[in-house]
Design brief:
Layout (H helix, E strand, L loop, with lengths): L1 H10 L3 H16 L13 E9 L4 E6 L10 E7 L13 E9 L2 E9 L4
Parallel strand pairs: 3-5
Antiparallel strand pairs: 1-2, 1-4, 2-3, 4-5
The structure holds copper (II) ion (CU).
Copper (II) ion binds next to strand 3.
Length: about 120
């Protein structure tokens, strides 16, 4: 959409129209804050390795995380709420979404999944 608007703007000699069109484009571009937001489509399969309820942390062996551009690995994530860890134990299969929150890799949604 932006591309077409810019092409039209370039072909029009009236500068004000071109500027208006470019501003409209910027508005569209900046309406997104540039951060990645996990959606249901970004759900990642993982296996619980360690639970640290006190520090709201979980160690997960996870499949590639597309929205974070991260390959499969085992790593520690923060959870947004300690209660997300309720009922989980090492060895459990989980389905989760993760994102960077305040520069910390954080599990956003987390639920037990059927074992593979
Ligand atoms: Cu990782």
């Amino acid at each position: 959409m932006c591309f077409i608007t810019r092409s039209i703007a370039r072909s029009i000699t009236l500068k004000s129209i071109a500027v208006t069109a470019l501003l409209a484009c910027s508005g569209i571009a900046f309406s997104h804050d540039g951060q990645t937001h996990p959606s249901a489509a970004d759900t990642v399969m993982g296996e619980v390795r360690k639970i640290d309820t006190e520090n709201q942390k979980i160690t997960l062996k996870h499949a590639p995380i597309k929205n974070l551009d991260m390959p499969a690995m085992t790593m520690v994530f923060r959870v947004t709420e300690a209660k997300q860890l309720n009922g989980l134990k090492p060895g459990d299969a989980v389905a989760f979404t993760a994102d960077t929150v305040d520069n910390i890799l954080t599990v956003i949604t987390l639920k037990a999944a059927a074992a593979k």
